[in-house]
Structures are given as structure tokens and as C-alpha cells.
Amino acid sequence: MFRLSQRPISYCRYGFIASLLPGLIACTTTMPAQPVQATADSGQMEQVLTEYRSSQVEVMLLRQQFLWHFPDANQHLAQFAHHIQVDGTVPVRLQEFVITYHKPRRLTPAYSGSPASAGNASAMTADFVDEVQINRNGEFLVREAISPVFTGGQSYRRLEAAKLKVGNDAYVLTVANGFLHKPMWLAIFGTDGHAVYRIGLPHGTWQFTEHADGISMVDTSGSGRRLVIRPELR
To answer: What range does the record give for the signal peptide (predicted)?
Structure first.
């Protein structure tokens, strides 16, 4: 799915210690990654993995051998200096940002056992999408839908957010999912509300790490991505 156009870079080769990502006990290799694109005949999973990246973002593939541990299912962003959870009932403040997670109830009529009732249940299921909204200092910035592919229909589905500081610029990182084995939604927004990066990840078991110039994400296989965010052109 990825086309690798340059030679891999080993951080150990250049003298960097394996603690570039917390929990590493082996050397890390990075490779430039081409954007993931879904074709017209792609299945659902390929569509989930479709990626958007702005011109500010450089993405490299990560490959490592071992991790010490993975964060709790409800605390993917616990390693970030400024992070919050939003349960969908009230807005939550993240320094100058206010995050709101609209999580509509999805009701399915009871199934009585007959084929007719099964058809009605399917037709009457409420297919409302979740939505994240971001305000900054009272100014509306973001209103974006999150597909049920990522959140499912469970009432305990969750949204997490973290503030990123890259140089003089601030960004909001958001992740949402319902189950660890289901796909996860990830998006990064700038202070004016523009989308910097967005991707659907194939499952919810990731270790996210904050860096001075972006983030990294690694799964249980030791594979992942390193995102470097360049200063926004003004």
C-alpha cells in the first residue's frame, strides 16, 4: 500500500538512543511514507485507512521490535503534557481550546423474532454520526463528523484530545474509537481550524508519543508512523 522512495534511516546508526519513543528496547528505523489513497473499488477497511495530510506534514514509517507496554484503553494520550477526555455530556476545556463531543443515542427497536420485525428494526435503526467541535477563546473553529465505523453504537465510546506545541504554533490532536479491536479515528487541527492531518487507523491499540516537532504512533507489532509538522506558511 505504501511506496517507499528513499533508503531507511536507522536512529541507532546516527547515535540516537532507543528512547526516542518511550518504552523502546530496540533500534528504530524510519522510511518516508507516501499518502494512503483509497481506490474506487476499495473495501471498507481500505476506505477507513484513507489518509489526508496537508503540505505542513511529513510522514515516515516506523519499524521497531519491542514496546514495554501500551496505555490504558481510555488513556491513549496520557503521555502528552496537555490532554483530556470528552465523554459527550459537557464541553471540556483544553487550555485555550474547548472540545465538545456530540454523541447521539443510537436506538434499535426490540426484535420480536419474526422476519417482519427484523426488517423494521433494520429500517428504524438511527444512524447518527458522532461529531467533534472545537472552539478557541470563544471563536468557533471545527465541526467535523466521525463515522460510526470508528465509534460503533456503544454508549461508552470516547473521544480524547491533546494540545500539541510545535515551535510557536499550537495544534489539537483528537482520537476516537469504540473498541480496541475496531478502527480508530485520528485528526490534527490548526489554531484556525484547518485540518493538518487525518487518518483512520485499523484498530485502537496504539501508543502515541509527543515530540517537539510532531507525534509518533506505534502498534503492538512495532509498526507505526512518525509525523513531523512544519511551520505554517503565513
So the answer is: 1-33
What the block records as the C-alpha cell of 216 is: 509518533
7 or 166: which leads in pLDDT: 166
67 Cβ partners below 8 Å, 6+ apart? 23, 24, 207, 218, 220, 222
Q: Who wins on pLDDT, 148 or 15? A: 148
Q: Residue 151: phi, psi to the nearest 5?
A: -105, -20
Residue 195: other Cβ atoms inside 10 A:
14
Q: Beta-carbon neighbour count of residue 37 at 10 Å?
A: 12
136-146 confidence digits (pLDDT tens): 999 999 999 99
Of 149, 196, 156, the closest CA to residue 174 belongs to 196
User: Please, which pLDDT band fits residue 104 given cuts at 50, 70 and 90?
Assistant: confident
The sign of the torsion formed by the CA atoms of 80, 71, 84, 55 equals positive
Tell me, what DSSP letter sits at residue 116?
A: H
Q: How many other C-beta atoms are found inside a 10 Å radius of the C-beta of residue 194?
A: 13
Cell of 77: 494520550
**How much is the pTM?**
0.74
d(CA 41, CA 20): 39
Instruction: List the strands of the sheet with 97-102, edge to edge.
Output: 92-94, 97-102, 130-136, 139-146
User: Beta strand 9-10 with 29-32: parallel, antiparallel or unpaired?
Assistant: antiparallel
164 DSSP β-pair partners? 171
Compute the average pLDDT of residues 144-168. 87
Retrieve residue 76's grid coordinates: 491513549
